[in-house]
Specification:
Strand content: under 5%
Radius of gyration: 22 Å
Number of helices: 7
Strand order of the largest sheet: 1-2
Distance between the termini: 73 Å
Number of strands: 2
Largest sheet: 2 strands, antiparallel
Order of helices and strands: EEHHHHHHH
Structural class: mainly alpha
Shape: globular
Number of domains: 1
Helix content: 55-70%
């Protein structure tokens, strides 16, 4: 609320109405080409996830509005996520999953798995409060999806050998 001069030398009370700001990337249609380019290879799609879980954890530890126990719970889930991402990337770079992970359908699965967690990261970074149980479910779901990608890829390779 602000005091503003009004007619006749009287001060009037007015409320500041803050416009809701739209996120810079809210119009995804404008980024279609970039998204399609990123989705053409696992290497490109996974490039920004190298230190993602650690960065999320560091951001989380700075928040005072989340209890210590909740921070520990989320950090634990982020540890699982970091490990799953590490294993996936090692199997891509040095292991047998390179060709499998570069398939467009698998890249799409990976992007669908990690996107909700990245959305939570942006929300946390912008200082928005989130339901902690939702955060745990989203991170745990991403870990499960990434582990399923690994298992499906290894299963497919094993089936080709037989």
């Amino acid at each position: 609320m602000f005091l503003e001069p009004a007619l006749g030398g009287v001060w009037a009370v007015s409320e500041a109405v803050e416009k809701e700001r739209e996120a810079p990337g809210a119009d995804l249609e404008a980024f279609r080409g970039f998204i399609e380019y990123m989705a053409q290879s696992f290497y490109r799609a996974s490039g920004e996830t190298d230190y993602f879980a650690e960065g999320f954890r560091d951001l989380l530890l700075k928040r005072d509005d989340i209890s210590v126990n909740e921070r520990i719970d989320i950090a634990f889930e982020l540890g699982w996520l970091g490990h799953a991402l590490y294993v996936l990337k090692r199997l891509y770079k040095d292991g047998p999953l390179g060709e499998y992970l570069d398939r467009p359908d698998v890249v799409k699965r990976f992007m669908e798995a990690i996107s909700p967690v990245m959305e939570l990261y942006v929300s946390f970074k912008n200082g928005k409060a989130e339901d902690i149980r939702k955060v745990m479910v989203v991170i745990g779901g991403a870990v499960g999806d990434i582990n399923a990608i690994i298992q499906d890829g290894l299963r497919e390779i094993e089936n080709r050998r037989c």
